[in-house]
Amino acid sequence: MNIIGLKTLYLKEMSRTFRVPGQTLLSPVLTTALYFIVFGSAVGTQLGSIDGVSYAQYIVPGLIMMALLTNALSAASSGIYFPKFIGTKYELLSAPLSYLEITLGFALASASRAMIISVIIYLVSLFFTPIPIEHPLLALLFASLTAFAFSLFGLVIGIWADSFEKLSIFPVLIITPLSFLGGIFYSIDILPPLWQKLSLINPIVYMISGLRWSFFGITDINPLISFGMICIFTVACSLVLSWMFRTGYRIKS
Amino acid sequence: MSKDIIVIEELDKVYDNDFKALSKINLSIRRGEIFALLGANGAGKTTLIGVVCGLVNATSGTVTVGGYDHVKNYRSARSLIGLVPQELYLDPFLNVMETLAIARGFYGKKPDKKLLEQVLRDLSLWEKKDDKVQQLSGGMKRRVLIGKALMNEPEVLFLDEPTAGVDVDLRRGMWELVSKLKERGTTIILTTHYIEEAQDMADRIGVIIDGQISLVEEKETLMKQFGGKNLKIHLAEKLQKLPRWCDEGNLTLSEDGMTLTYTYKASESTGITALLTQLKEEGINMVDLSTEETSLEEIFVNLTHNDS
Ligand SMILES: Nc1ncnc2c1ncn2[C@@H]1O[C@H](COP(=O)(O)OP(=O)(O)O)[C@@H](O)[C@H]1O
Ligand SMILES: [Mg+2]
Question: How far apart are CA A164 and CA A142, in angstroms?
Answer without folding.
Answer: 30
